[in-house]
Design goal:
Elements lengths: L1 E4 L1 H15 L3 H23 L6 E6 L3 H15 L5 E5 L6 H12 L4 E3 L4 H10 E7 L13 H11 L3 E4 L20 E5 L2 E2 L13 E5 L13 E3 L4 H5 L14 E5 L6 H13 L4 E6 L4 H7 L4 E4 L14 E4 L7 H11 L5 E3 L2 H11 L8 E3 L3 H8 L3 H6 L1 H12 L1 E5 L3 E5 L5 E5 L10 H19 L3 H27 L4 H13 L7
Parallel strand pairs: 1-8, 2-3, 2-5, 3-4, 5-6, 6-7, 7-9, 10-19, 11-12, 11-14, 12-13, 14-15, 15-16, 16-17
Antiparallel strand pairs: 1-10, 17-18, 18-19
Helix pairs in contact: 2-3, 3-4, 8-15, 8-17, 10-11, 11-12, 15-16, 15-17, 16-17
């Protein structure tokens, strides 16, 4: 798991290293610029920027401007000659001004956005690559003039952009409607900033290129964020003993499906088996009992209990409710009964909406919960506009997870997972193949199957839920990548086979 920092934490890390190592900020800037140029050089070479066309640095007044200017100096020393600078402000900060003096001494043209906007626009249009140093981690709120208009001029130029650390406009308090300068590449200084993975921001970051070696390895940094990576699955998934049998691998009770939505019930049930659950029972209404009985052979299909929550608690290790279930009053009462048993549970789709209604009435589940909402469901659950959650889940998810005492899996092209204790993880999915009907049902089934098995294998209910949620998101994401590579556009049931191979491979978990 790769640590991620907020912008404020990144600033504190920078100052802490300066203080502990007694380093002036100019030394850290020099170290950063060398590493940034190492990352940028192959990009510039591929485009011909600096040789066959102009490599242009866009500069505000902060340290990102100094980094961008220092990168141009390294480019000149590497033999590139066609370069220029656009200053967004006539008076940049002290470190940036020092770097600017070096470039002027080397004869690199420097234009002022405030004094000569037409010449700057012409330069933007003929540039083969723009190095974005307009604003960095010190930004608060929206970008202001004159930098805001420089940002829009850069966008209008259509020239490709490489952002220094983060795209200009991004901050800890980023919200829907604020402007960003979209980058084709983001040269992200490690530890990376969590905001790069805000779902609304992620497309504007392009290819995220990690830039290490700027801060000392192991330097302490206060962070509640982490980026999930494929190899993390090995640590998160508990292997059953060779002597395991169906009862010891996890027993799951599923409440899903309705007339016209039997596929959701079938997929989530089958996915829970692919995640390793040893025994799965699907409880359904009388109307769809024959349909699902004929569809499923490895899943026991049973009539829904006549009384709300009337299941034999001792027979089950976890619950799954919601896929294709409907939002009737009977299901609301059934859900309240199920969550009163104390069994760990995964709630998806209709069960999320029903639980939101129960929570608003003061109901509290007795056992640990995993909720798997998409943006619309999260909006209903937390009373927040979906666009705000997509723009800044780091701000909105932790209080909701704490209030609901639930691990929340916020599904999107970048999936955010928030634990009730404030920890957050993110999976950089960016796989459009997963945007297919039933994909969420499969994710819910994987999470429930893992939770049922973890309930048998491990102690610590809260940690089990967070581990199961993170493992499910990784396995689901990897399944999508594999299915896309093999089949092109795929259907949700194809994910189940891939998940079984990933999670059930003998020995180590296959990444």
């Amino acid at each position: 798991m790769r640590p991620l920092l907020s912008c404020a934490e990144a600033s504190a890390l920078d100052l802490g290293v300066q203080r502990r190592a007694q380093l002036p900020p100019a030394i850290l800037m020099e170290d950063a610029s060398v590493r940034l140029w190492d990352a940028l050089e192959p990009i510039a070479a591929a485009l011909g920027a600096g040789a066959a066309g102009t490599l242009t640095a866009l500069c505000g007044s902060g340290n990102n401007a100094g980094d961008a200017l220092a990168v141009l100096r390294h480019a000149r020393f590497a033999g590139l000659n066609d370069m220029a600078v656009i200053l967004g402000k006539s008076a940049p900060g002290e470190l940036a001004m020092t770097q600017l003096s070096y470039l002027r001494a080397l004869g690199i043209p420097v234009l002022s956005w405030e004094a000569e906007p037409d010449s700057c626009r012409a330069l933007l249009g003929r540039s083969l690559l723009l190095v974005d140093g307009i604003a960095g981690t010190g930004l608060h709120g929206p970008l202001r003039e004159p930098l805001a208009s420089l940002l829009w001029a850069a966008i209008d130029s259509g020239s490709p952009v490489a952002a220094v650390d983060i795209p200009s406009g991004l901050s800890d308090d980023f919200s829907a409607g604020l402007s960003l300068l979209p980058a084709r590449w983001t040269l992200a200084i490690e530890p990376r900033k969590a905001g790069l993975y805000f779902p609304a921001v992620r497309p504007a970051c392009g290819e995220i290129v990690g830039v290490g070696g700027v801060f000392p390895v192991g330097e302490p940094a206060k962070t509640g964020f982490e980026l999930l990576e494929p190899d993390d699955l090995r640590r998160l998934v508990a292997r059953p003993a060779p002597s395991a049998y169906k009862g010891s691998r996890g027993r799951l009770a599923v409440f899903a499906g309705s007339v016209g939505a039997t596929g959701a019930a079938a997929m989530c049930s089958r996915a829970s088996l692919a995640a390793g659950a040893g025994l799965v029972a699907l409880f359904v209404s009388a109307e769809i009992l024959p349909i699902l009985s004929s569809k499923l052979d490895a899943v026991m299909v049973k009539p829904a209990p006549s009384a709300p929550g009337a299941i034999e608690v001792e027979r089950w290790d976890a619950l799954l409710a919601g896929p294709g279930w409907g939002r009737s009053g009977d299901n609301k009462a059934t859900l309240a009964g199920l969550l009163s048993t104390g069994l760990p549970a995964v709630l998806d789709a209709d069960a999320i909406a029903l639980y939101g209604a129960l929570a608003s009435e003061g109901f509290v589940a007795r056992g640990p919960l995993i909720l798997t909402p998409h943006p619309g469901e999260l909006s209903l659950l937390g009373g927040m506009p979906a666009e705000e959650a997509l723009a800044n889940p780091a701000k909105l998810l932790p209080p909701l997870a704490s209030h609901l005492a639930a691990t929340i899996v916020f599904k999107s092209h970048c999936t955010w997972i928030a634990a009730p204790d404030g920890r957050m993880s993110v999976w950089d999915g960016m796989e459009s193949g997963l945007g297919t009907a039933g994909s969420g049902d499969v994710l819910a089934g994987i999470a429930a199957g893992l939770l049922a098995g973890a309930s048998v294998e491990r102690a610590g209910a809260g940690e089990r839920s967070y581990d199961a949620a993170r493992a499910a998101v990784i396995a689901h994401g990897l399944s999508g990548r594999r299915a896309r590579a093999k089949r092109g556009w795929f259907q949700a049931p194809d994910l189940i086979e891939e998940a079984a191979l990933i999670l059930g491979a003998p020995g180590e978990t296959a990444p």
